[in-house]
Amino acid sequence: MDVKIFDSVPDGFLDLPPNELHKILPGPSLIRCRGKESRPLFLATLLHGNETTGLRAIQKLLKKRLAENRDLDRDVEIFVGNVEAAKTNVRRFPDQPDYNRIWNGGNLPEHRLAAQVLAYLKKSGIFASIDIHNTSGKNPHYSCVNRLEARFINLARLFSQTLVYFTRPKGVLSIAMAEICPSVTIESGQPGDPYGDQHVFEFLEKCLGLKSIPDQVEAREDLYVYHTMVRIHVPENARIGFDENFEGRDFSFIPNLDSRNFAELPEDSLLGWRFNPELKLSVMDEDDRDVESDYIEYQDREIRLKRPAVPSMFSTNEQIVHQDCLGYLMERYALPG
Ligand SMILES: [Zn+2]
Questions:
Q1: Where are the domains of the chain?
Q2: Rounded to the nearest whole angstrom, what is the distance from the C-alpha of residue 270 to the centroid of ligand 1?
Q3: Fewest C-beta atoms under 10 Å: which of 52, 121, 138, 174?
Q4: Which residues contact 118 (CB under 8 A, 6 or more apart)?
Q5: Could you report the per-residue pLDDT of 152-210, keeping only the tens digit for each?
Q6: How far is the CA of 51 from the centre of ligand 1 (A)?
Q7: Distance of CA 45 from the midpoint of ligand 1 (Å)
Q8: Which range has the worst mean pLDDT, 52-56, 65-69, 323-327?
Q9: Residue 334 DSSP label
């Protein structure tokens, strides 16, 4: 599996919907769009095949510049990830690794592909890196950074004043890109929302117009920074649902679990019910230790929080919960200084 490299925008790229990109892109592809300045802005999209906002915003940006006959301020290098999964609008296929977990080495063809892409980008003198995602549950728009350096924070807050700082899992693209240039991941709400397309488009316009990224953080009181403490997984074959119905289920979670994302939940908050006492949730900290007993308490059937926390990425999509995780627990983080 080799990355396909395009030196210019292939015909059809500006108009094809995500599920038809495979007609022009044979697989994961790098596409260079020429601008006035040669140091490229790097944009990644469709690492998850069902997360379509990034592609739509990029198409809108390029089409607008073309229509106005205005050059891009600088080169843009686009990585289109899981073209195959996008074809059927899924995050990934069961036999594929998660394309946002392959950037830290490994033995699969996808790991070699990722290494190839990174080697190429290292040579390109990338100016800044933006990986565009959607969330499967309801979340506010937010930016993620893996380093609390001023240029990373300043790039991130052009999209949202809500920032999530995390350093695990190690295999995400933005951590690998942080070795090369200021790097962020943006989470632009659920796919298919026109507001998300517009907001990401406006953010990309701002990034494209940057001559440099300031290395001082101003007005830090306006920032909401959260730090990911743990991620919660359900056991592999657990039967789960999202209402109080327990028939044939191992776990149920509260309806609209995702509406709690970014809310400050007090200790003892109800997350759901466990109907199979043989099973337990796994709660992994950033060092991959299971710290379930620090965070979760089973009171009869009820699953409750043992300490205050701020959830993020809680999803009510069963397939995503199994493929990725139920969600994360965070805490508010004070920026040093
Ligand atoms: Zn994603």
A1: 4-222, 229-332
A2: 27
A3: 138
A4: 103, 176, 177, 180
A5: 999 999 999 999 999 988 999 999 999 999 999 999 999 999 999 999 999 999 999 99
A6: 6
A7: 9
A8: 323-327
A9: P
pLDDT, position 24: 98
Which CATH architecture describes the domain 4-222?
3-Layer(aba) Sandwich (3.40)
Cα 50 from Cα 315, distance rounded (Å) = 14
User: How remote is the CA of residue 163 from the centroid of ligand 1, in Å?
Assistant: 16
Alpha carbon distance 51, 47 (integer Å): 8
Tell how far the Cα of 300 is from the centroid of ligand 1, in angstroms: 35
**Cβ(24)–Cβ(12) below 8 Å:** yes
Which long-range contacts does 56-61 make (Cβ < 8 Å, 24+ apart)? Answer: 56/197, 56/200, 57/132, 57/188, 57/197, 57/198, 57/200, 57/201, 57/203, 57/204, 58/132, 58/204, 59/13, 59/14, 59/15, 60/197, 60/201, 61/201, 61/204, 61/205, 61/208
Asked if residue 234 has pLDDT above 90, the reply is yes
Cβ atoms within 10 Å, residue 261: 21
Q: pLDDT tier at 245 (50, 70, 90 boundaries)? A: confident
> Cβ distance 222 to 159 under 8 Å?
no
How many angstroms does the Cα of residue 6 sit away from the middle of ligand 1? 24
The rounded Å distance from CA 144 to ligand 1 centre is 12
